[in-house]
Amino acid sequence: MAGLGSVCSRRLAGFVSLLLLVFMAVIGSASPDAATGANETLRNSSEHRKAFPVLAFNYEHVSKPFVISLWILLALLMKLGFHLIPRVSHIVPESCLLIFVGLLVGGIIKAMDQTPPVLDTKLFFLYLLPPIILDAGYFLPIRPFTENMGTILVFAVVGTLWNAFFIGGMMFAVCQIEAAQVGHVDLLSCLLFGSIISAVDPVAVLAVFEEIHINELLHILVFGESLLNDAVTVVLYHLFEEFAHEGTVTVGDALLGVVSFFVVSVGGVMVGFIYGVLGAFTSRFTSHSRVIEPLFVFLYSYMAYLSAEVFHLSGIMSLIACGVIMRPYVEANISHKSYTTIKYFLKMWSSVSETLIFIFLGVSTVEGPHNWNWIFVIFTLILCLLSRVLGVVGLTFIINKFRIIKLTKKDQFIVAYGGLRGAIAFSLGFLLTDTEKKDMFLTAIITVIFFTVFVQGMTIRPLVELLAVKKKKESKASINEEIHTQFLDHLLTGIEDICGHYGHHHWKDKLNRFNRKYVKKWLIAGDRSSEPQLISFYNKMEMKEAMMLVESGSAAKLPSLASAASLQNAQQRAPPKQRAIPSISKTREQEIRKILRANLQKTRQRLRSYSRHDLFSDPFEDSMSEIRFRKQRVQMERRMSHYLTVPANRQETPSARKVWFEPEHKVYTYDESESPRDGAALETLPDTVSLLSESPQRPGQSSRLRKRGDTEPSANAPDSQEEPQKLSRCFSDPGPKEEEEEGEG
Amino acid sequence: MGSLQSSPSHQDYVDLAEKTGFSFEQISILHKRFKQLSHNEDKLRREHFGQITDLHANPIREQIVEAFFDKRNFYQEIEEPVSEISFENFLVVMSNFRPPSDNMSQEKLVKVRKEKLRFLFNMHDTDKDGTITLEEYRHVVEELLSYYEALETETARGIADAAMLEVASITRGHMEPDEFYEGITFEHFLKLLEGFDIESRMNIRFMNMDTTTLCKLECRNKVCSE
């Protein structure tokens, strides 16, 4: 009862606050007549002697930023609101809900006879789109992308071309039908329309696919296609727009178009490449100003986008190229905090952008001058679907001849079904200058967008379940998998060499060697440049774990204890099999632990006095790396001497905290309030297995707890108090009592 | 070039094709390569592999070459030590890298996966005792990291140790203090790489047409067939 009541009251509160904000937004966008009026009266009445205005109302002054902030606030509150209504957010993808809200708001504003803000093309292309694309590009999973590059390119280029011409051509045929009364639309306009509507939209794809967790291959295929088809769209759009006025296209123009395509795409990539290298190079020198590191990443990328747009090159490809090139080098150079900042900011901006885009789409729909023509719209819809299906099936037939892993019918269906249209099509349509056809086109475009986002977006999830499409594997960062990935790379390169043909792996290996020898030396600071990938991977894992240990406060006391205890153990028990066991002397062991402790205390003191300017040198990180290395050496050696010294009494606690290192682009926070349970603590199995419970930011993630075999080696930060006692109890020999006390001191 | 009697007849090709799953064209191309490597002899020896210049830069070349001479990969009884292999053995080892065919049933896929993992396992388990011990795994990691210069063995060890711990935790769960983890058996190895889609990764594109640019071989005192 109480539960129901609280749920109801929460919903009520949510709704009321939403409504309030809607009204505020409406008022905000209303003209500030009242404000000027008030000012004038003030001035008029005090012509003799101006009384000092105690309280004044001057809205104009802040109207623009006020309105913008209000809109953003509204959008974000909507996002929050959706999660108060649990069932809806499961069925309906967020993008649909946002469009719906936009419709509502637009309707309300219209009802009040105000002019709502429209999704202005400039606003969209210059401010709203870049964060989303940068976010996508920066966290693009490189391996699957490059492995499927051929397929993605074929879909993006040939597929989009096919779509554009098919839709354009067929629509022209449709327009010839007398009943439609659209005979005035000529071929070129139709082709223009086709080129606008044919492109798969990255924003929509991201929004929908993000929630269905489909397997990596399909995700990267559709997503990659949506990113790379920008070049084709840009060229086709400009080509047809230029000539829509002229009326005819010659063969020469068509050839120029082809050349232009190469220029646009390759040029865009080059621009991105240059800025990426610049960004990487700059990051090499930022060791003394860590605070501004993230800004470099953002600004260089944004400049890449803008520079490409200046020359009418493909801004999206430029942005992607910049992010992809910059990332490995920048990440080797910047501090961990900057890395987190970049990740968070990108996610934040792209999230806000996406929300705003969808809301504005809804508002613009209500607002825009519409010219509804049944036949035109219906046929557009049908043709879009048809051309997509035909395109995908036909292309896959050809592509499968060249692929090792063929695309199955199920895959093809998902790729075809996932071809969503979105705001890019709308904005491009908005740019059209010919008002008569523009309205009709816009209406059709909006209809297609709505259809794909609502119908396809909502039904793709149940379809995925129905067809039992492979879902994304919850991959933990496992060091074994990393080792084997690298092993396989070298193995396959070797086999290719033996076979005698220069294949895919051979060239990849050559590129890696070139990268290692020359490029890394230039772009990565200091001795990190020669750090092998495996080690940086391992270090990252250790770093994460070390940070969590320290932040939870009880830190290195444990490892030293464990190592001390296990040292005792090892020396007292001869291992059953003959194995080479390294041993370090006890004095060295003590030295190490003293240093560890000292470092940790230093760290904790520094952490307390935190100010922005203190971040110059990152003491946290320096001690972290020291701790990490020492701990690594000591801990591993000790434990490896008899593999595992996990005490037997560690039972599985039912709610043992678990974590895995989620794939990098997921942003997670961990709950500092969660303290690990007592019994669970001891296992300091740091490395890959499970550490903390995480609550990812992206909505829709539910379960995090997972059983791994029969183990639940659980959380890190142990309860320090219980630790020492437990440890000593676990081992048959009394254990190093003196060291324990030292450790706690 | 090359004497007629050393080239297998079409009939042999059929047998090989059936055994390994390669097509005739692929077999004949690989045979050409075999003959090039072995200088037209019947059998291939270890030093023949040493001629491949590209292989020198590979950090795990020794294991790769050893894999060709590993009797466990031949599916037939040969006495150890194997010092030379025939074309059939060469082909059998190569067939581990064939991509699974399109319309394979689920169980066949599982079988293929197991075979590939078995091959990997044999590569790691150099003393052929059926388990990958810590020392062997350390060796693997060290080899991988030897690709890069300036490395301390400590770090390599650390990584290998962490990896072993992970295996132990996956397969054995928590262990008693006096339990000892002997090494990774094949079942553990399977479990370890459960999430690793090896059947789609461990593949080489074998050409059907003779477009191979047969890589340069080091010529030593013999006439090279280029």
Automatic annotation (TrEMBL), chain A:
Signal peptide range: 1-30
Protein name: Sodium/hydrogen exchanger
Subcellular location: Basolateral cell membrane
Region Disordered: start-end pairs: 670-745
A GO molecular-function descriptor: sodium:proton antiporter activity
Entry similarity comment: Belongs to the monovalent cation:proton antiporter 1 (CPA1) transporter (TC 2.A.36) family.
A Pfam family it matches: Na_H_Exchanger
Organism: Oryzias sinensis (Chinese medaka)
Residues in Sodium/hydrogen exchanger regulatory region domain copies: 561-654
Chief place where the protein resides: membrane
Residues that span the membrane, as ranges: 92-112, 124-140, 152-174, 186-208, 220-240, 255-278, 313-330, 342-362, 374-400, 412-432, 444-464
Compositionally biased residues, Polar residues: 690-703
Top-level division of the source organism's lineage: Eukaryota
UniProt GO cellular component terms: basolateral plasma membrane
InterPro entries documented for this protein: Cation/H_exchanger_CPA1, Cation/H_exchanger_TM, NaH_exchanger, NHE-1-like, NHE_CaM-bd
Keyword Protein transport part of the UniProt annotation: no
BP-aspect Gene Ontology terms: regulation of intracellular pH; sodium ion import across plasma membrane
From TrEMBL, chain B:
Protein name: Calcineurin B homologous protein 3
Family the UniProt entry places it in: Belongs to the calcineurin regulatory subunit family. CHP subfamily.
Topological relation to the membrane, as annotated: Lipid-anchor
Species this protein is from: Oryzias sinensis
Entry GO CC: cytoplasm; lamellipodium; nucleus; ruffle membrane
Classification via Gene3D superfamilies: EF-hand
InterPro entries: CHP3, EF-hand-dom_pair, EF_Hand_1_Ca_BS, EF_hand_dom
Pfam family, one: EF-hand_1
Highest taxon, organism lineage: Eukaryota
Primary localization class, coarse: other
PROSITE patterns: EF_HAND_1, EF_HAND_2
Location(s) in or outside the cell: Cell projection, Lamellipodium; Cell projection, Ruffle membrane; Cytoplasm; Membrane
Record has Calcium as a keyword: yes
Domain EF-hand: 112-147
GO BP, sorted A to Z: cell differentiation
GO molecular function: calcium ion binding; protein kinase inhibitor activity
Keywords attached to this entry: Calcium, Cell membrane, Cell projection, Cytoplasm, Differentiation, Lipoprotein, Membrane, Metal-binding, Myristate, Nucleus, Protein kinase inhibitor
